[in-house]
Amino acid sequence: MRLAVVADIHGNLPALEAVLHDIRRRGADRTVNLGDCVSGPLWPRETMDLLETLALITVRGNHDRWVAETPRERMYASDAFAFDALTAEQRTALGALPAQCWLQESIAAVHGKPGDDNEYLLESVIDGQLVLASVETITARMGRMQTSLLLCAHSHVPRVVYAQAATLIVNPGSVGCPAYSDPNPPAHVSAVGSPHARYALLDKRSGGWIVEEIAVEYDWNAASARALENGRPDWAQGLATGFLSPPITP
After folding, report:
1. Which CATH number characterizes residue 124's domain?
2. What are the 10-residue block averages of pLDDT along the chain, 250 residues in total?
3. DSSP assignment, residue 55?
């Protein structure tokens, strides 16, 4: 089995198109989307239109849920931009996505940690940055989840981690948002240090899984310019460089 895993697209249409092209070039039996599909000052409607044609296995991210359920006047700017661009049917479809799915008996997919789409599974916040959590912390966050392969997202940081001695956890990184700032306590920044679009490719072999964390070039300057045109210099910086300095409102 060859499995492609995408996540945290955040309405970045050219990044998604570049990743999909790379997946087609390399080949994959299935592609899984771990959520946060459209929220952001880029191309939310166009991204949703494309995703609807693909019918990928998709779990709901926290921003998908917020776009679907939060009153418009209480939304973050990125969610409000997506809300205004989407149709009512598209917003409903985001809210109806499952919070968790099983691809097989031994392969589970979530957005954040099991049972909470707005909490990190693999990272902790230390001194305003995301750092890899201890294996004890990760195991505790998994709760009663029992699986040999767990796919997660939310932090935008690509990682391959073993926990519970027999569970491989893979975060593919973010297709469309390489850096962001979260001002909610504890305020912190996530930054991967390059503007590439990221995804993961997993090959099942007799000896287990081989995982490739892939970084794809695309026209990130165009994405950065789009964010700037829509009044988000913070997004423009993150998209163009993969770096961001706190504090910035998401």
Report:
1. 3.60.21.10
2. 97 98 97 98 98 97 98 97 98 98 95 98 96 95 94 98 89 98 94 98 92 98 98 97 70
3. T
